[in-house]
Amino acid sequence: MTGPIALCCLLLSAHSLHLTAGYLTVSIEPLAHVVIGDTVTLKCNFQTDGNLREIVWFRVIEGGSARQKIFTYDAMDNMNYSHMEDNHRREDLVYQSSVRLPEVQIEDDGVYECHVGIYDRSSRDKVILASGSIILTVIVPPKSISVVAANSPSPFSRYEAQNFTLVCIVTGAKPAPMVYFKRDGELIDVVTAAQSSSSVGDQSKGPVEDKRRGQHQPVLWSSLVLTSQDIDDTKLQNSLSRLEQEGKLAQLGQDGLNGLEQGQEQGSKSDSEPTTEMIPETVVSREFPRWVQSSDPLYYFQHQQQARYDGTMEVRAMLTWSLNPQLDNEALFSCEVKHPALSMPMQAEVTLAAPRGPKLSMIPSKAKVGDTVRISVQGFQLGPSASEVFPEPMFTWTKVGGRLLDGSEENDGRELILERVPADLNGSMFRCTAQNPLGSTDTHIRLIVFDNPRLKKGKEHFIAISTAISQRSLTLTSILLLLSFTCKLT
Questions:
Q1: 3-state SS class at 466
Q2: What are phi and psi of 406, to 5 degrees?
Q3: What pLDDT does residue 456 have?
Q4: Burial profile 299-323: b = 16 or more Cβ within 10 angstroms, e = fewer
Q5: Residue 76, exposed/middle/buried by CB under 10 A (0-12, 13-18, 19+)?
Q6: Are 119 and 175 in the same domain?
Q7: Element (H, E) at 130
Q8: What is the DSSP letter of 88?
Q9: 362 and 439 inside one domain
Q10: Same domain, yes or no, for 406 and 463?
């Protein structure tokens, strides 16, 4: 009988302890992501039947190994024990504690905890503790977005297709944004690097044939150009025949590409010979591609991201395809970014354009013998509103019918400097070639060298001084001869 009686007594004491012991529940209201610079209020709700002891807010730092106290409320001086004398009465009290964080920054990102302590109903010296936590996520919208051309500036290829890559650079975002490309306002259907690497096929076939078969072949980012098998021989021959009729090629061999190379060599030889025909002061000519490309290429997409020192991300999205200058010229490409901190997409856009004759300026406008002449590129003639070319062109300077003043065959850059021009450079023609992957154009400018009066005065002054010295020498010689003759007579 002792055992059951003891068990009953134990159950009754446990029930009595449960009735007298206080309880405490703590919860923090959920919070969505917060944009940097916003003001945030953290709310901690707790329910208890005991008397409040204290509320403490902590920020977890050092990877969770330490806590930083940011707010404390001590209720010890306001304690009231009157209702604790009745152990059978339970009074539920609901409290809320809030902490305001003004203009949050990236460093405010992290875990926050709300710790609550109450006095136990069964003992005034006993404290019951409970806590809740929340993760504050601070997001940052992108600071900048730009579109550049990879490997720019780069030359124009007249005889074969070449790859072209647009790079969209997004900086200052947290977390990393979603980036995508559009062409003329339409979303581009791309092949990702993972898709292209997971496919299996013959890499010798061009991407145009692969798309017709509905397959994505493995792609090397450094070699996406079409092979000769992807060029339509019939269209190529038609293009070559038109060029021959226009006199742009002197002779074509049986093989189309070999004939083009021979024509290029002969053209370079003819440029090196002195020209005697009448040439206007400014001549603009354009070079068009001599190959045919598909109008429906595959676009390959690659995405990279890297953490920056300030906790944000830098994203580089690359779009690569086989360029078609006839169709891609004046095409509008845009890079758009979606981010939870943006109410609408952020975008940057560029218009692909081939150079159409750089505008040249000469300083001084009337050069004299011995002056230093600077011929520089001022702008591009693209249309009524456009003033720049994308991608950035390469500029090459040559002298028609000879070498440059310094003896070199050509010079690169936006400016050609001719130091101390001689008189025999008068009437010389200089050619500026501007080219980018979409096309090439030449502009000529003639140098007129005028006489320099300062140099003439200097020569005349030198001659006068020389004559005076000679006359003085003759007079002194005559005197000496006369003295010698007189000495001999005496």
A1: helix
A2: -85, 5
A3: 63
A4: bbbbbeeeeeeeebbbbbbbbbbbb
A5: exposed
A6: no
A7: strand 127-136
A8: T
A9: yes
A10: yes
As a dihedral over the C-alpha atoms of residue 246, residue 249, residue 253, residue 257, rounded to 10 degrees, the angle is: -100
Q: For position 427, what pLDDT does the model report?
A: 93
CB 426 within 8 A of CB 447: yes
DSSP state of 174: B
Range of the domain at 34: 13-139
pLDDT in tens, 306-318: 999 989 999 999 9
Residue 214 pLDDT grade (very low, low, confident, very high; cuts 50, 70, 90): very low
Partnered with residue 302 across adjacent β-strands are: 318
Mean local confidence (pLDDT), 196-220: 40
Rounded average pLDDT over 212-220: 34
Residue 483 inside a domain? The answer is: no
By DSSP bridging, strand 190-192 and strand 299-307 are: parallel
Would you tell me the crossing angle of helices 233-245 and 256-272 to the nearest 10 degrees? 30
d(CA 219, CA 228): 17
Q: Cα-flanking dihedrals φ and ψ of residue 15, to 5°?
A: -65, -40
pLDDT at 210: 37
**What CATH number does the domain containing 339 carry?**
2.60.40.10
Establish if 321 belongs to a structural domain. yes
d(CA 269, CA 246): 19
- Distance between CA atoms of 392 and 457, rounded to whole angstroms? 47
Residue 299, strand partner residues: 190
CA 180 from centroid of its chain's CA atoms: 15
Are both 190 and 318 inside the same structural domain? yes
For residue 373, the model assigns a pLDDT of 95
- The overall average pLDDT reported for the chain is 74
How many whole angstroms separate alpha carbon 194 and alpha carbon 218?
A: 9
314 and 332 part of one domain: yes
